[in-house]
Write a structure and sequence with these properties.
By secondary structure, this protein is mainly α. Helix 4 packs across helix 5, helix 8 packs across helix 9 and helix 9 packs across helix 12. The chain has two domains: 135 residues, no CATH class; 94 residues, no CATH class. Helix content is 36%, strand content 5%. The chain is built from twelve helices and three strands. The chain has a three-stranded antiparallel sheet with strand order 1-3-2, covered by helices on one side.
Length: 315
């Protein structure tokens, strides 16, 4: 089953990829679509040819084998055997496989054997003298082994040194300077002082006025205690409306009185009573209330006349 794979610009700029013939550079991204989410596939040149080159008469099974050998020579993949069956493993730790699979499907193909220090006979060009990909660079995160210190036989490379940064305890153990010193505990920044709105503060007076009008209309409405400590949250929202939104205490009080001075349900201000039930909603809905106030000034009534005869209802 073909899968969606990605190919980034780094692939075409890599020296190993540039050393390949042009037709193999463009053919390899299609090979990745055959591989499973672990970068493995069955080594079957005929199957690969039928999937990637179904209409190319000049591409034969031998051509596919030749292309796979050239890809193996630059470290793009490894051909290995398990129980007499040959498989392909794409190099997962290179520019040839740059996939980020969110929900990978477990591979049904066996991984590279753990005792793969010897290159299988059917690896076709992957021996150390042919410049192929060392076995310790293929699928090390898939097999579960730590191969960071393994050096391919005959490659002449020295095993990479451990570049892990030593901890403070390791340094003290090496230098013999005594017990490790614990780092100082982080100091939390001092909390920001909360604003205190006294009874003479304009924000507190507007909030208290709103609470009074709500309680007159809804005696059973759950409201904060009418004290400076209980009204701090409402006063904070009103203060933000004054400082940040550019309102004045007179404008906010006028909007509150406009809502509650209208006794007829058909008035615009009457319906805002069910919406503005706190200092936060007063600040949030003030713009809409202001528009409604300009559209329906105080004293103006909606004309709503019931027809005297039921026959006139449809007229």
């Amino acid at each position: 089953m073909a899968r969606i794979r990605s190919t980034k610009l780094d692939y075409y700029q890599h020296p190993a990829v540039r050393s390949l013939p042009l037709h193999i550079r463009g053919w390899f991204p299609g090979l990745k679509t055959i591989a499973d989410d672990d970068g493995r596939m069955l080594y079957d040149p005929r199957m690969i040819r039928c999937q990637l080159n179904p209409s190319d008469d000049d591409v034969t099974d031998e051509t596919i084998i030749e292309w796979l050998d050239k890809l193996a020579a630059v470290g793009a993949l490894l051909i290995y055997s398990v129980n007499g069956m040959s498989y392909i493993q794409i190099n997962l730790d290179s520019v040839f496989w740059d996939e980020r699979i969110s929900h990978p499907t477990p591979s049904k193909i066996p991984p590279i054997p753990e005792n793969s220090g010897e290159v299988p006979e059917d690896s076709r060009g992957l021996r150390s003298d042919s410049g192929g990909l060392p076995l310790d660079r293929i699928g090390e995160d898939r097999i579960g082994e730590d191969r960071s210190g393994v050096t391919p036989e005959g490659s002449g490379d020295v095993a990479s040194e451990d570049t892990t940064t030593p901890t403070l305890a390791d340094q003290n153990e090496t230098t013999g300077e005594g017990d490790p010193v614990d780092p100082p505990d982080p100091v939390d920044p001092p909390p920001k002082p909360k604003p205190d709105y006294a009874e003479d503060h304009p924000a507190y007076q507007v909030a208290l006025h709103l609470r009074t009008r709500i309680q007159e209309w809804r005696p059973n409405q759950k409201l904060p205690v009418a004290t400076p400590n209980g009204m701090q949250a409402w006063a904070l929202d009103v203060d933000r409306a004054i400082r940040l939104d550019g309102r004045t205490a007179e404008q906010l009080n006028e909007a509150i009185d406009w809502m509650y001075d209208q006794e007829q349900p058909g008035r615009d201000g009457f319906r805002w009573r069910d919406v503005i039930l706190s200092g936060g909603t007063l600040r949030e809905k003030y713009d809409k209330v202001s528009i409604a106030m300009s559209r329906q000034p105080a004293g103006k009534q909606f004309k709503h006349e019931k027809p005297k005869n039921y026959k006139d209802w449809g007229k």
